[in-house]
Amino acid sequence: MAGGGDALRALLRAANALLQQRRYRAALAVLKGFRNGAVYGAKIRAPHALVMTFLFKSGSLREKLKSIAQATYTHSRNLAYFVFTYKGLMALQSQLQGKKIPFHSFFAACIGGWLVFGENNPINSQIIMYLLSRILFGLSRLAVEKGYVPQPKQDPFPLVAALIWGTVLWLFEYHRQTLQPSLQSSMTYLYDDSNVWHDLSDFLIYNKRTDSK
């Protein structure tokens, strides 16, 4: 047992020494990026899938748990693959050109996005829409910072909020099929299901009655 413990400690010392080697830093950063992508993807998707599945999906407990596990795995895997691809291409471009330039980031992310998130499925669709909203806000702020757009005299956020809510509810009411399925489910629960009840039980306690009364 003592020999096994000594061997393990020696292995850990060797691993820690390897991690301190600057020559391997770029490759190790790619590997840690893969690890962080997998962990972050699981942390983000698991609670979201848990809530959405038990709130809106029907089926047995086994089927629901399987759906949660599959969604979590897919998100975690895709994010890990993307970070690995992005950081690997960034390191390769920097090595080839001898320096890091802004185009490297755009090019590496485009390749990673095409390879990893190019398939049109519910998980990828949610991620892309999440990023799109952040991009629009980011580009708006950048346009002001660079002077392409004058600094607003008043906070434009109330107007943005009004237009976004007005547009999404108009789409929900009259062009529902254009919205993403999980958003349709959420809005159906909020705006359609609240129009239906039979007695106090499905007015205050439950959303819908499960009996045949």
UniProtKB/TrEMBL annotation:
Bilayer-crossing regions: none
**Record gene name:** Pxmp4
Q: Which organism is it from?
A: Aramus guarauna
Coiled coil, from the record:
none
Q: Name one GO cellular component term.
A: peroxisomal membrane
Annotated protein name in UniProt: PXMP4 protein
User: Domain of life of the organism in this record?
Assistant: Eukaryota
The record's section on PANTHER family has: PEROXISOMAL MEMBRANE PROTEIN 4
